[in-house]
């Protein structure tokens, strides 16, 4: 009898855990945010006893930064075959990186003008921002004397550079005419893929703990500051959404320059935009984006390359978020960002966009990279974490829109790559990426980017 009772109890426990895992993360974060705010306001300062739960969440985020940079950058860069590094690849890279740099500048500019976070302070946040080095030293330090030392020191830019170089080398190994070198390259790539899956599994676990961390962080902040933090968070949300609307207007202006039909474009793009908003995954939206590209008349020779690449390196919405949120963190920390720090934010944001994982919430880790590199305190990131899901939806919709804009423009500039959109395609549109429904990188789901992951 006792054995049966124990069995039922154990089954019930597993059932509750499974229900928690299956419950959408966005709702868990929302519940954690609201519950934390209510608990903090109701209990007041004694709620600070749960502060270690929030600190644990911050430590988990920091723990993921370097492994995520290394594996996703190597995987993302090495996924581009040497034969694809031609005209289409060059145009795509230039477009994606240029618009990302412009987008993060929009986020910085709007945030500096609105000044979200001004007047708010984090309880117990006495960490002063480190004095940033000169611009010349920052640029020179991108190339590490010792990549392992850069890894230990947490030098984000240097680790990124080393990972990009390794990814490029792996690309040429896999395309080598020497059978031995090519086989070794393929073997190393499988190892990188395994490392990516391992890191993503850890991220998945951290995100399951995120609602608890957000609850504790918000509760402590509300218990100490009261309702003073609500207005700054609302300002940050307004800045991010306003910046994304401005970025979409920029896309529209660019398409007008190329005489692309705006109405037809957005009629085709509305499905991936909505899918990206709901799923918060650029890479998970790839099949929908591919069908939209076909509706626009883009041939597979272009979109099968530019869309997966865009899911990896084109993070315009995330760049706006990182720029605005970095100013938010600086304002709460009482630090006035210098020109060197602003330039560092742009540089880190653009480089980080290459390797941002294609999973919901990865933009928060990208923000962690930027805040760490600029020498700001990590504590205010807790506030941003509470509304990250809300911001993630808009930035993902912006990301997938930018992917389609680049794809349509590149197709127009390449002979024979743009057909009459009203003419039927000879192949089944369901096989949207490589003729089998599988993206070139293996089709793993997941915003912010894509690397080999199928992350905001």
UniProtKB/TrEMBL annotation:
**Compositional bias annotation for Basic and acidic residues:** 417-431
GO MF terms listed in the record are: symporter activity
Classification via Pfam families = SDF (PF00375)
Q: Which domain of life is it from?
A: Bacteria
Database matches in SUPFAM superfamilies: Proton glutamate symport protein (SSF118215)
- Tell me the Gene Ontology biological-process terms attached to this UniProt entry: carboxylic acid transport
Q: Where is the composition biased (Gly residues)?
A: 440-456
What is the originating organism of this protein?
Nocardiopsis mwathae
- Please give the chief subcellular localization of this protein: membrane
PROSITE patterns reported for this sequence: NA_DICARBOXYL_SYMP_1
Task: Spell out the subcellular localization from the entry.
Answer: Cell membrane
Question: Would you tell me the protein name for this molecule?
Answer: Na+/H+-dicarboxylate symporter
> Gene Ontology terms, cellular component aspect?
plasma membrane
Q: Which InterPro entries match?
A: Na-dicarboxylate_symporter, Na-dicarboxylate_symporter_CS, Na:dicarbo_symporter_sf
Traced from the root, the source organism's taxonomic lineage reads:
Bacteria, Bacillati, Actinomycetota, Actinomycetes, Streptosporangiales
* Keyword annotations from UniProtKB, A to Z: Cell membrane, Membrane, Symport, Transmembrane, Transmembrane helix, Transport
